Amino acid sequence: METLEAINKRASLKAHLSTREVEQDKIIKVLDAARLAPSATNEQPWRFVVVKGKENVENVVTRASRMGRRVFDEAPVLILVFVNPKDYVFPDGKTFYLLDIGLAMENILLAATDLGLITHPMASLDGDKLKEMLDVPDEMEFVLATPLGYPTEGSYEQAAQEKLSQRTRKSLSEIAYSNKWGKPF
Amino acid sequence: METLEAINKRASLKAHLSTREVEQDKIIKVLDAARLAPSATNEQPWRFVVVKGKENVENVVTRASRMGRRVFDEAPVLILVFVNPKDYVFPDGKTFYLLDIGLAMENILLAATDLGLITHPMASLDGDKLKEMLDVPDEMEFVLATPLGYPTEGSYEQAAQEKLSQRTRKSLSEIAYSNKWGKPF
Question: What does pTM read for this prediction?
Answer without folding.
Answer: 0.97
